[in-house]
Amino acid sequence: MNLARQDWQGAGASLDAQGWGLLRGLLDAKNCAQLRALYDKEVFRSTVVMARHGFGKGEYKYFAYPLPEPVAALRASLYIQLAPVAGRWATMRGEDLHYPASHAGYLKRCHQAGQRPTPLLLKYGPGDYNCLHQDLYGEHVFPLQVAILLAEPGEDFTGGEFVMTEQRPRAQSRASVVPLRQGDGVAFAVHRRPVRGTRGTHAVHHRHGVSALVTGERYTLGVIFHDAQ
Q: FRET pair for 60, CA 20 to 30 Å: which of 36, 40, 44, 103?
């Protein structure tokens, strides 16, 4: 993992400005291959075939507890960096929410509410895509998440861009295509971010998805910090 070299201040500013921030080179090629190899292991609690639910095409698997060590380490370390942004957003919205300094502390809330693990591994083939959506699962929702691309665009697959949309008050939606390479991560708003305007703070709503693959296979690690209900 390459968390220490990340520009977390810059990522936080980007999250504030547009709802997402790039985390370049979080994982090297070896780490990516190790995580891709987990897809065929007995480390998951469930598999979702997206077409069955109208989510798109392709499939993903939710990890079971205990999480594989690399996934658990990433989740805990990324949370530490993103919790201050989550806390700042709560203050801007006037919400009385406190995010513990450690991810273990936050998970206690989820487990007390009966929520289950949500980190997932996604796999796409030719023609597969993920509809625009929000990952809202239970009573406790951490407002940020991270997706890490485990395959190399142009070599392992073509197409399959990560897409974010922003619904602004009294304005048309805006779309962004996030330029990810293998090992890059993108931190992004789960469903909304606060924005200060001339009339005070308002909420801008976000959705994310993946455009259709043309060729190859695309793997992504999804790091969701709240657990599911």
A: 103
The whole-number pLDDT of residue 229 equals 64
Cα of first residue to Cα of last residue in the chain, in angstroms, is: 29
Helix axes 69-92, 29-37, angle to 10 degrees: 100
Bridge partners (DSSP) of residue 185 are 23, 148
Fold adopted by 8-224 = Jelly Rolls (2.60.120)
Work out the angle at residue 115's Cα, subtended by the Cα atoms of residues 109 and 119, and round it to the nearest 5 degrees: 100
The rounded Cα 123 to chain-centroid distance in angstroms is 15
Q: 19 and 164 in contact (C-beta within 8 Å)?
A: yes
pTM of the model: 0.95
The values of phi and psi at residue 35, to 5°, are -70, -40
pLDDT score, position 161? 98
**SS3 for 44?**
strand
86-134 per-position pLDDT tens digit: 999 999 988 888 899 999 999 998 888 888 889 999 999 999 999 999 9
The closest alpha carbon to 208, from 181, 183, 186, belongs to 186
Contact 138, 144 (CB under 8 A): no
